[in-house]
Amino acid sequence: MGLINLLFKEPLTFFLVAIPLLYSIIFHELAHGWVAWRLGDPTAKNAGRLTLNPLSHLEPIGTLMLLFVGFGWAKPVPINMGYIRTRSGLIMVAAAGIVANMILAFISVFLIRLLAPESSSSLGMLLYYMTQINIMLAAFNLIPIPPLDGSKILMGVLSQRAQYALSRLEPYGFFIIIGLLYMGALDPVIRLFRWIIMTMIGFLLF
Q1: Where are the domains of the chain?
Q2: How wide is the angle at C-alpha 13 spanned by C-alphas 11 and 15, nearest 5°?
Q3: Fewest CB atoms less than 10 Å from the CB: which of 6, 119, 148, 154?
């Protein structure tokens, strides 16, 4: 179900979901560009993508898909790996978005425990949605299918031959992911990654 239904049925819930979702995606993309910039790649900075301005990150089709289907995407931050030649650099850039979402989820859970807001209050709902959205984004992007970040992390540890084989899937990756999601084949993988992330957050907050 897309977000557009919420806008007409439950406007407050729409904004409590849409705003955390929007900025969680922006922080995800911003993290990729920022880490790449710190490692010597100025491409994202020169393109004006190191910003929290939503207009710099929204992708028209991805935004419409999100509103009407419930699955969408932002414009990927441009990265030139010619500036980043090491395997560790590739892994760090790829993992940056996932780590950013995990940090946002951690902060949200921490605030829930610190402030103990009523679950039915606007603040309680906002922090709940912020937590769940960021855990889901991190878990989903860990899937090792191009163009998701998990595939880039995997490429950082594979041989060049295996990297090339995996990269050849990228033109078809979107359709593969949609097909596997439709069949439910990715559900166990996403649940596993969610459990790992939630366990890590729980351990840090123990």
Answers
A1: 3-204
A2: 75
A3: 119
